Amino acid sequence: MGSNNSLAVRCRSLVKSYGSGDAKVTALRGVDLDVREGELLMVVGPSGCGKTTLISIIGAILSQDSGECIVLGHDLQRMNETERATLRGGQIGFVFQMFNLLPSLSAVENVAIPLLINGTPQKMAESRAREAIEAVGLGSRPNVLPSELSGGQQQRVAIARALVHDPKLIVCDEPTSNLDHDTGVAVMDVLRGAGKKHDRALIVVTHDPRIFQFADRIAHMDDGKIIEVTNGASAL
Amino acid sequence: MLRVAVKMLMGDRAKYAGLVFGIAFTSFLVTFAASYFTGFMTRGFALISENPTVDVWVMDPAVRSVEKTTNMAASALDRVRSIEGVRSAVPMALGTAEVRFANGQFQSFQVIGVDDATLAGVPPPKDGVVPAALRTPDSVIADPGGTSGKLQTPLRPADQWPGGGPRLDVPTRSLTVGDELLVNDHHVTVVGKSEALPRFPPRPLLYTTYSNASRILLPERRRMTFVLVSAAPGVAASDLAALIEARTGLRARTSDDFKADTVSWFLENSEDVGDIAAMLTLAMSVGFGVTGIMLYMFTTENLRQYAVFKAMGASSRMLLAMIFVQVALSALLGTGLGLGLCAIASQFAVEAEYPFRMMWFTPLVSSVMVVIVSVVAAAISARPVLTLDPAIVFTGR
């Protein structure tokens, strides 16, 4: 558990559907979920159960149809797109399964992007980006292109990018699914350390049982609902 | 983030090169095509251009261009001369004649009859011949008028003026001083050759005196095509033209206005110009289309990267700025390269005597057009970026 019990995320009765008429698909059917500051919560479940939709809503990327979602004290449903973008840019970090690094930018330039989006001057952004890269163990290779890095190193760069602007919430989508076991564990080590050190909330969507050990709690989803929340140790 | 946009643009070298090359090609094509078209039009009013001392051209009221003319009564000359503000007024006759060479070959020529006294309008003859040579009876100065290989006469004296029919396949040489031609059954002697401005449509020219033109051209009741007027000092050409029109009922145009009239006439009436313009428009449209599509594709192929930015909190304004910076940089580089290429190509075109004339505003206009196309392409390609669902950055969506 985290160092305190303040809620970083509070979701109640979240409903989200895609399409309309006969093609309507309900991805979330009333999700209730709390995530505390400093906590690493994993969301697991079969493909199509609504995990990605859930983190998209929590990450202020997608709007719910109904229900309440309060993230870092902000009621997302009451925010317009600009306010949500500001929230994402300032307080939320993202780690993606496919890394989503820009191939033409060096590692340090990739990591600096969130700062640049927030208006940080170039030099200061790159300086902080170098610190973030060092923090994830890639301090010796800040100027290489993503194509010159291994999958694990690329994911570390992506983690550094998610952390560089000191977000309060980090949303990770299958961060280890493209990595071998050892690398996946190492990446999770970095993520967990970054979360605990600064009391950040981490939400990790995963299929990978090898990393369940890093979870404080695990939310099990199926058919658009959270059917059970267990603590991480009990999943092992 | 604008720096990131530039790095995104240049990072994918193949796409970037393709994009810049596409814009350069369009810029080159538009500038070259427009200059080529301008070259044609410039040649269309070559007769006006080669008479720079003429302030006002007076003609039949129905005449709208130097290309299609009808003649006036000889009295028009005196009527024009009687108007105050006219320093000098001289006649000019234009006509077309089938001219026979010494071997019997024939060729259509434009005959230009200039004032006997002043010989105004005769281009400088080559090889030391002076225009006054035209004062010799039955003399002409021959000019290719933008054609090539059309002023040929038999090489061997035995093939010249043969009896028993033409000798069309005999060796020939260029016309030279002393050669004879047959114009409407009148023998004329070439007393000089000139290289006046090339014509559009190209045609060989025969310069002669007004009186000689009246004699060798087919008889017409009216022979005078233009009165070439010089204004008295202090008299504005436009004012004088208006006065001449008011007093004589004839059409009087300043040189610049008459050039503009001629261009308009070509645009409205010449099928050749219409065909050329259509081809050039098609070429330019293809160029613009290619540019627009390439810019659009460049942006849409990077949608995932924009989605990442959007997910990280980039505003729509920031993404728009990034797209426009990429487009502006590509357009700037491409246009510069295209114009440079066009400048090089123009040297070859001019040396090869193609109708090429790059006006000062042509590169400017083509640059503006490329920018407009780029901006439109950017605006069109911006739409999917602005409506992009950043959730696509997550797998399964």
Automatic annotation (TrEMBL), chain A:
Keyword Lipid metabolism: no
Gene Ontology cellular-component annotations: membrane protein complex; plasma membrane
Keyword Transcription regulation attached: no
SUPFAM superfamilies assigned to the protein according to its UniProt record, in alphabetical order: P-loop containing nucleoside triphosphate hydrolases
Domain ABC transporter: 9-236
Key words, A-Z: ATP-binding, Cell inner membrane, Cell membrane, Membrane, Nucleotide-binding, Translocase, Transport
Gene Ontology terms, MF aspect: ATP binding; ATP hydrolysis activity; transmembrane transporter activity
Family to which the UniProt record says this protein belongs: Belongs to the ABC transporter superfamily. Macrolide exporter (TC 3.A.1.122) family.
Function: Involved in beta-(1-->2)glucan export. Transmembrane domains (TMD) form a pore in the inner membrane and the ATP-binding domain (NBD) is responsible for energy generation.
PANTHER family reported in the protein's UniProt record: IMPORT ATP-BINDING PROTEIN
UniProt protein name: ABC transporter ATP-binding protein
TrEMBL record, chain B:
The MacB-like periplasmic core domain, residue ranges: 18-246
Subcellular location: Cell membrane
Membrane topology: Multi-pass membrane protein
Keyword Transmembrane: yes
Superkingdom per UniProt: Bacteria
InterPro entries, per the entry: ABC-4/HrtB_transporter (IPR051125), ABC3_permease_C (IPR003838), MacB_PCD (IPR025857)
GO cellular component, one term: plasma membrane
Membrane-spanning ranges: 16-37, 276-298, 319-346, 358-380
Renumbered residue ranges of the record's region Disordered: 137-165
Keywords tagged on the record: Cell membrane, Membrane, Transmembrane, Transmembrane helix, Transport
Annotated ranges, domain ABC3 transporter permease C-terminal: 278-390
Signal peptide: none
Designated name of the protein: Uncharacterized protein
